């Protein structure tokens, strides 16, 4: 490596380190605040070195019943994802192989994502109220499912288009029908892309706020709604809020570590035919 290449290599690494620090700083500061007492959390200028405490974590579980909202978020996110992935996979496969509805119908699906959720929430609330689905986890699952399906279908179309048709034709020649060929041949090959879509679906459901705020109640609210409730007449309970945020991002961090390999493969799987 020449001197010029070494210099540019150092500059590139320095720039990456600076941007990494800028991206990670809010997360690091949130973790720091979650272990700070109320006095230290609001102190200006802030202290960087102090005796940490787990009081904030204890308070949100004991006083704010955070375990209930964590359970609600997990149930809604995982059930909605488990239902949406098979439906989206079959729909995307139909678009990729049979061009159902043509390019106009494809665009119509993605155009549904252009509508802001606030436009849909009032009619959705009226319908759910008449059906008795407000203040229920079932109602949240259905609403998340309806809102995320178009995005998942659009995402998975590219993955299935990247799979050569000759693989399915070989399965058909061996005696398999279309559905068997899809389940036993196409679906396993597209697993990295499907896994990536499942992760995105889980994250969208986990972080969703507006539908949960309007359609849920005290016993069915999710983590984002409960975190928003930590803004009280006394101000923002910054210590509890930081502890709640740390707990809220833990499942995503753990999930990404377990399926990182499949996620990276899935993000690039549909990019090249």
From TrEMBL:
<keyword id="KW-1133">Transmembrane helix</keyword>
<feature type="transmembrane region" description="Helical">
    <location>
        <begin position="12"/>
        <end position="31"/>
    </location>
</feature>
<keyword id="KW-0813">Transport</keyword>
<dbReference type="Pfam" id="PF00528">
    <property type="entry name" value="BPD_transp_1"/>
</dbReference>
<keyword id="KW-0812">Transmembrane</keyword>
<dbReference type="InterPro" id="IPR000515">
    <property type="entry name" value="MetI-like"/>
</dbReference>
<keyword id="KW-1003">Cell membrane</keyword>
<dbReference type="GO" id="GO:0055085">
    <property type="term" value="P:transmembrane transport"/>
</dbReference>
<dbReference type="GO" id="GO:0005886">
    <property type="term" value="C:plasma membrane"/>
</dbReference>
<protein>
    <submittedName>
        <fullName>Binding-protein-dependent transport systems inner membrane component</fullName>
    </submittedName>
</protein>
<dbReference type="InterPro" id="IPR035906">
    <property type="entry name" value="MetI-like_sf"/>
</dbReference>
<comment type="similarity">
    <text>Belongs to the binding-protein-dependent transport system permease family.</text>
</comment>
<feature type="transmembrane region" description="Helical">
    <location>
        <begin position="74"/>
        <end position="96"/>
    </location>
</feature>
<feature type="transmembrane region" description="Helical">
    <location>
        <begin position="181"/>
        <end position="203"/>
    </location>
</feature>
<feature type="domain" description="ABC transmembrane type-1">
    <location>
        <begin position="70"/>
        <end position="259"/>
    </location>
</feature>
<feature type="transmembrane region" description="Helical">
    <location>
        <begin position="209"/>
        <end position="229"/>
    </location>
</feature>
<feature type="transmembrane region" description="Helical">
    <location>
        <begin position="141"/>
        <end position="160"/>
    </location>
</feature>
<keyword id="KW-0472">Membrane</keyword>
<feature type="transmembrane region" description="Helical">
    <location>
        <begin position="108"/>
        <end position="129"/>
    </location>
</feature>
<feature type="transmembrane region" description="Helical">
    <location>
        <begin position="241"/>
        <end position="259"/>
    </location>
</feature>
<dbReference type="InterPro" id="IPR050901">
    <property type="entry name" value="BP-dep_ABC_trans_perm"/>
</dbReference>
């Amino acid at each position: 490596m020449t001197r010029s290449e070494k210099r540019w290599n150092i500059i590139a690494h320095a720039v990456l380190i600076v941007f990494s620090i800028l991206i990670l700083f809010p997360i690091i500061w949130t973790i720091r605040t979650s272990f700070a007492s109320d006095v230290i959390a609001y102190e200006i200028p802030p202290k960087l070195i102090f005796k940490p405490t787990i009081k904030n974590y204890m308070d949100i579980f004991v006083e704010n019943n955070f375990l209930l909202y964590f359970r609600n978020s997990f149930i809604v996110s995982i059930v909605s994802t488990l239902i949406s992935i098979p439906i989206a996979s079959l729909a995307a496969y139909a678009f990729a192989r049979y061009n159902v509805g043509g390019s106009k119908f494809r665009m119509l699906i993605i155009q549904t994502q252009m509508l802001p959720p606030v436009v849909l929430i009032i009619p959705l609330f009226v319908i759910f109220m008449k059906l008795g689905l407000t203040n229920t986890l079932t109602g949240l699952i259905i609403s998340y499912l309806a809102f995320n399906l178009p995005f998942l279908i659009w995402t998975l179309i590219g993955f299935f288009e990247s799979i050569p048709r000759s693989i399915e034709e070989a399965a058909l020649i061996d005696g398999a029908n279309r559905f068997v060929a899809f389940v036993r041949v196409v679906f396993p090959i597209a697993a990295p892309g499907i896994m990536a879509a499942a992760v995105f679906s889980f994250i969208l459901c986990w972080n969703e706020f507006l539908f949960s705020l309007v359609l849920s109640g005290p016993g069915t609210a999710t983590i984002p709604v409960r975190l928003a409730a930590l803004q009280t007449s006394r101000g923002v309970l910054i210590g509890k809020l930081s502890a709640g945020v740390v707990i809220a991002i833990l499942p995503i961090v753990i999930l990404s570590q377990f399926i990182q390999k499949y996620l990276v493969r899935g993000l690039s799987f549909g990019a090249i035919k």
